[in-house]
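Appendix B, Record 12. Input sequence as logged:
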Amino acid sequence: MTHVEDELTSQPACWARAAAEAHRHGGALPAPGERVAIVGCGTSYFMAQSAAALREGAGQGETDAYAASEFPPGRAYDRVLALTRSGTTTEVLHLLAELKGRTRTTAITADPGTPVMTVADEVVVLDFADERSVVQTRFATTALTLLRAHLGLHTDTVVADARTALTAPLPEGLVECTQFTFLGRGWTVGLANEAGLKMREASLAWTEAYPAMEYRHGPISITTRGTATWMLGEAPDGLAEQVRRTGGLWVAGDLEPLAELVRAQRLAVAVAAARGLDPDRPRHLTRSVILAP
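Logged structural output:
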């Protein structure tokens, strides 16, 4: 079993623990009414997108998501929340340093022995969800689960569905597809973006991701026999039928959307295996992006 497989299968247990411990970290996480920005890089940025949409949708306050390198320097926030598995990502550390003494900052990380521990005002450590793999799975989804629990949005259903996602067979013919499109709505747009990234990282697959309603505005033109369109969450009316008419494979997201992401992670590993690739050794990637000064 690869590191990626081992780590992605541990997600239900990690999510249950994060949800149970969320109350311990309440003082470090955004309070209702705060104007918040959530930042990250790569996978963490996509989790930030989902978390921001969930928080604002829950009426907890204005919440934006940015890639750490694209944070608007002139915009005022009550708190900036950074997601960083490694605690060493250059863009995140630079941003937190720039905000020191001006804006309250919190970091969620997996490694307590890294620079983020001192550069952020407050830190939440999810060391039980740390990973050996380059390709992120459980840390990112566990961090999102912590934030969902903090908002009162976590339920036992997502853990149960994640266990189902780990055992249910993937749709017939899916692994053999040559192109994959992931779709989301609202908070699941970030999940769709992350599903596409997992496919690119682990299996070098041609993947795209879009808000579901935007898919009709051009991207559907590439869908044909041998391609797949996967919906995370509830699909817009009529979209499944439109995809089927193209000859493409429609994959309905029947599970809770975060659990559906686990199925996409499994697909990435399965496609990598079918192509003779090692998902633990993704091309041109390292566990953390540390830029030269």
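The mean pLDDT is 95.
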